[in-house]
Structure formats: C-alpha cells, structure tokens
Amino acid sequence: MRLCLSCLLLVVARLTAATQPNVVVLLADDAGWGDFSFNGNRQISTPHIDAIAKRGAHFDRFFVQPVCAPTRAEFLTGRYHRRLGVYGVSVGQERMNPDEKTFADSFKTAGYVTGLFGKWHNGSQWPYHPLARGFDTFWGYTSGHWGEYFDAPLEHNGVMKTSQGFIVDVLTDKALQFIERNQSKPFLCFVPFTTPHSPWSAPAADWARFKDKPLAQTATQTDREQLAETRCVLAMMENQDRNVGRILAKLRELDLENDTIVVYFSDNGPNGHRWTGGMKGVKGTTDEGGVRSPLFIRWPGRIAAGTQVKPIAGAIDLASTLESLAGVKRVGDRPRDGRDLTPLLKAGHDADWAPRQIFNIWGNNVSVRTETHRLDGAGNLFDMVADPGQTTPIQSKQPDLTKELIASVDAWRKEMGVAAPAGGKDKGKAANGPGKSVDPRPIHVGFREFPTTILPARDGEPTGQMRRSSAAPNSSYFVNWTKPEDAAVWSVEVVTSGTYVVTLDYACQADAVGTPLELSFEGTLLKGRITEAFDSPLKPEQDTLPRPRGESSMRDFRVMTLGEIRLESGKGELKLRATDIPGKNVMELRRITLTLR
Questions:
Q1: β-strands 381-383, 373-375: how paired?
Q2: Which domains does the chain have, with CATH numbers?
Q3: ∠101-102-108 over CA atoms, to 5°?
Q4: How many CA atoms lie within 13 A of 518 on its CB side?
C-alpha cells in the first residue's frame, strides 16, 4: 500500500512539473559576447554553455546595460532601470524601489519554490534584499563585487557564514542542493555567477592551462588589452562552464531535463579589452561591445534545437518571456518596457515581429539601437549591418534617420528623468557614471520579518580622516581611523522601536585594546570597548594576478559584540566613533550588524 501511494505521489509530482516547468537562470558577471566558443572564440572551450544554445535557441543581437546592477534590475522587472530608482552600482545607488515587483514574485505567488545562489546587487537590506523580492532562500552576496573568491564569507538568508573552496564551485553546490531538495516541486533557481568579474582569481588547475597560452584572437583595440588578465578571464570562464555542466547533469540525473527551462546570459560587456568579434566597446560603454550579450534558452520539446533569433531583444524582455513560457500570472501592474519573446522562440526569425528601439545608458551617456542601426552617445549614426564594428559614422548620409533617433533619445531621457549633459552630447564627468556619493535614501532597520540588518562599509560614509580601503566602495572597509573626530556614519530609518544587539566585524592591532567606542542614534548612546586584538594579515594568495588598483585587498575580520541599544523609530544618523585613541589606529571596520530582539 505504501509503495502504491509513493508511486502515485511521484506521478502527481511529475504531472505538476509538466504543467509548471522548472526554470534555471544562469547569469555571468562581466562576460563579453566573445568569451564563448559558441561565438567563435577558439582560445576557450565552453561546451556546456554552448550546449544550451545548440539544444535550444540563441539570440543574434541581445542587449543588456553597460554595467551590472542596471541589467539585473531590468531582468527582474522588465522595466528600464531608471524607472526603478537604480542609477549606479554601489553606495545604495543599485537599489530597486521597494514598490517594484519582480518576476520572482510572480513565480513565488504561483506556487514555485524560489532560490538565488550568487551575486544579487540590487540592495543589501530589507526591503531591497532578495528575500523581500520573491526569493525563498539566498546564498551569496549582495554587493557589486566580492573581494574573496576562495573560502569566502557568504550570506545565507541574512546571516554571514564561512565557506570552503572556490566561490563559483561553492555556490553551484548550494544550487544543486536546492534542485535536489525541491525536485518534486516546481522551482525557480537563479544562479548569478561571480565570474569573470575581478579580482583576478582562478582555480590553480584552470589557470595552469592558460598562464602561458598564446592568444591569437585579440581585442579590437589591441594596444589596450592586458593579456595576462585575458588569460585569467578565460580560466575563470572554463571553471564557470564546468559548473554549468554540473547543473545540467543534475537535471538529467533527476529526470528533470525536459521539464526545465534553462536560460544563460551575461550582465554587460567584457570587463577589459579582449576579443569581441571586432565590436567597439567594453563594459561601461554604450557601444555595441559594451552591451551585447549572449542569450541562450533551452527547453527540450518546446524550443527547437538550433533556433536562431535574429530580431533584437534585451534583458527587459526576459521577465515577461519566462512568465509566458511557464504559464505564470504576472504580479504587479506597472507598464513593462520589455516584450514577450515567446513568438520568436517558436518561429525564430520568421516571426511576425514589429520593429523596436532598445536604449542603453550609463551616467548621461545614452545610445539607442534599432534592428539595423545604432545612434551612439555622441550622436553618431552607424549601420550595424554593414559596419558592425562602428568604424564609419553615416549621419551625414542618413540625416532623417539620425534626426528621428535623436528625437527618440531626447524623449526617452525626458521619460526616464535623465537630464541632457551640459555642454552638449555626453560632455563632462557625468557621462562616465553617477559618481560615488552615498544614495540619500536611508537604510531601513528593524523589520520584524527580517530582524537582522547588515550595514557594510560600502553603504556608509567615512568622516574626518577615515577613508575606504579602496576607491571602489564595493567590498571595501573603513581604514585610517586615527582621530576622535573620525567616524563611520550610516543614514538609517528605524522601522521598529526596540532593543537591538550590535556587532562589529573588525580587525585591529594590540595597542587598540581598551579603545572606548560610542555608537549613537538621535541622542541614544551605546558605549563599549575593544577587548581583543585581531591583527589579521592581508591575503594576496587569493589572487592569480594583482587585483585592479581600485579594489580592496582583503583580510579576515573578527566579530565582536558591542552591546545592546534601544532605538526609537525614525530617521537619523547611526554614528560609530572612538572617544579616545590610545594606539595608532582604532580598527579597520568591515560592517556593523543590528539585530532586533
């Protein structure tokens, strides 16, 4: 009897899976269109990623934004990121407004189990956290990049944990466990990989294959390519491909392959000058090479193997497409900018598909793409069919089209609230990015449904002589804390009045023991002292190559409990300072954590 019941339950589970397909989304971080053997790179082998394209659909011209957080926000919502409150990649500028809904919300409401394993990059605290945006479980990091790729500290549902191994392997392990655990239920598994984003850290065996490898295919601007970094990227990509293979193998092992939609793409162009098939532009630019990404979608029996999609598409299309493919009703009613790509997946380039324009922006630099042309940020027009490398501007030959696209850009700027730069097209510093000023929206503290709030140095402001450990706020910590007027400050809004346990992640020398510390918020004080030294060394052994100058060298941090503080609801500055400094430095501070009791 028990055997019959078990068989019946298995049949019901399989029927449910057939009507509600699983979804696995794989997202590379900083991989360019040319970083795959499927796209003609003969210097690398990515057979598992290639197999998704060969056994499903591949898009010829798929566009994302020039940098990480904007692309991720558009993918999650189907709306241009400037509508969402996202305009940068750090110091809070990456946060999506809390009233926006994601496609993960749709899947969760439809009964899916949802999990995210990797880099989030659209807000660290509730209600910006992944668990507030439709995901049931989260393993990874919320920052724009992570400074440790081996034995990295990672977050699990709001709690920092230690890990063992290479970060991509570790997070793939977590995804595999999620799939195995939920094999009898419909699931959404989002795996935003860490690589090939810097730091330049690759597993030794992967690096050994590439460290002395001659490179015949080089960057469009050959003189700007750093060959050692390219080799490290290729090594990291082969590791990533191997982990994609592990996920695909798990689906086969569990007999879920035919019931699972698998999607693979990248979040922006290459993070450096390397081979892109002759395209102009890299990460951070709105030229073709900076915003063109692979898009591979596989669903055996539903999407024909070898389908090639010619019409242009973008990350803004994926939310509607996945909901449509899975038969999931959308949650939220704000107008989307993207389209449902299902007709293209069914009919390929033969689909009846209306012409469209796709916009790209970084800072004030706006570019627009049609099926055949691109108007760049300086107002130059290029025929992308005849001149895919953007070598010859043709606005003088096609003035009417140029005028039409300039008008489209102006209208889009107005709709998105993006001012035209002073001095003409893309003049001035704002064209290169939004700057590093901390976003004025306060960080929320003290939700009962998510009582722990992590306040990393990235989201705070150093005052006095205190500074960040690097120019890039992501994965940084506060250093040079030498004077009583130095302080670490976070703009917060306490949601729930109550008692909060305060911990610090710190490192310090022996002469700092006994230093009196004071945490303040709107007249309320918590006083404590450093009771134990923790003088951890930097960890250069993490790096295959020296990391970019703007990124922090990492060290281990110890957790100390400062004490408990009563916080009343309201907005204000949370400030940590030392009232006396007996040693040379107070500490290096990675984060403060507040937990509502």
A1: antiparallel
A2: 2-221+243-349 (3.40.720.10), 364-432 (3.30.1120), 443-596 (2.60.120.260)
A3: 105
A4: 15
Lookup: tokens for 201: 């850290």
Extract the tokens encoding 245.
């293979």
Q: 75 — phi, psi (to 5°)?
A: -60, -45
Please, are residues 283 and 247 in contact by the beta-carbon 8 Å criterion? no
For residue 47, count other CB atoms closer than 10 A to its CB: 14
Phi, psi of 243 (to 5 degrees): -75, -35
3-state secondary structure 392-415: CCCCCCCHHHHHHHHHHHHHHHHH
| DSSP annotation string for 496-552 | S-EEEEEEEEEEB-GGGTT-EEEEEETTEEEEEE--S-B-PPB-GGG-SSPPPTTSP
156 bridge partner residues? 139, 159
In whole angstroms, what is the distance from residue 529 CA to residue 485 CA? 17
Which residue in this structure is represented by tokens 């990235």? 458
Half-sphere exposure of 80 (CA within 13 A, CB side): 16
SS3 176: helix
Sign of the CA dihedral with 281 first, then 282, 285, and 286 last:
positive
Say if CB 271 and CB 30 are below 8 A apart: yes
- Please list the pLDDT of the chain residue by residue as tens digits (597 residues): 454 444 444 444 444 445 899 999 999 999 999 999 999 999 999 999 999 999 999 999 999 999 999 999 999 999 999 999 999 999 999 999 999 999 999 999 999 999 999 999 999 999 999 999 999 999 999 999 999 999 999 999 999 999 999 999 999 999 999 999 999 999 999 999 999 999 999 999 999 999 999 999 999 999 999 999 999 999 999 999 999 999 999 999 999 999 999 999 999 999 999 999 999 999 999 999 999 999 999 999 999 999 999 999 999 999 999 999 999 999 999 999 999 999 999 876 677 899 999 999 999 999 999 999 999 999 999 999 999 999 999 999 999 999 999 999 999 999 999 987 655 444 433 445 677 789 999 999 999 999 999 999 999 999 999 999 999 999 999 999 999 999 999 999 999 999 999 999 999 999 999 999 999 999 999 999 999 999 999 999 999 999 999 999 999 999 999 999 999 999 999 999 999 999 999 999 999 999 999
Phi-psi region of 563 (alpha: psi -120 to 50; beta: other; left: phi over 0): left
* Helix or strand holding residue 490 (H, E): strand 487-494
Residues recorded for the chain:
597
Instruction: Mark residue 581 as left, alpha or beta (left: phi above 0; alpha: psi -120 to 50; beta: remaining).
Output: beta
